[in-house]
Amino acid sequence: YTLGSGTATEDARLNAILRAASDWGHALGSVIAHEVGHSVGLPHDESDPNGLMRAAASSGALSNTATRFSGPSAQRLDQNLGRD
After folding, report:
1. In degrees to the nearest 10, what's the CA dihedral of 33, 66, 55, 72?
2. Which range among 2-6, 13-17, 64-68 has the greatest average pLDDT?
3. What are the tens digits of pLDDT across the range 22-62?
4. Long-range CB pairs of 38-42, under 8 A, 24+ apart, other chains included
5. SS3 (DSSP) at 51
6. Concatenated DSSP letters for 60-79?
């Protein structure tokens, strides 16, 4: 199925599926980045509400596309990987 080749209802369903897949992909990527962070020595970091290394994440946080490594986490990551 390609968008626009069917009814408006079918298009809406495809768009809902694409949004859900994108959201799940982002959530999975966030969890993987958090756990890889631990594997290279990053502790939990509460300094940034959008930080990937926060101790707990709500489902809303996992869907937040503004997540990132906070400044302190990014700096420590660079140090731990020998980039600093």
Report:
1. 80
2. 13-17
3. 999 999 999 999 999 999 999 999 999 999 999 987 778 88
4. 40/77, 40/80, 40/81, 41/76, 41/80, 42/69, 42/73, 42/76, 42/77, 42/80
5. strand
6. HHHH-TT-B--HHHHHHHHH
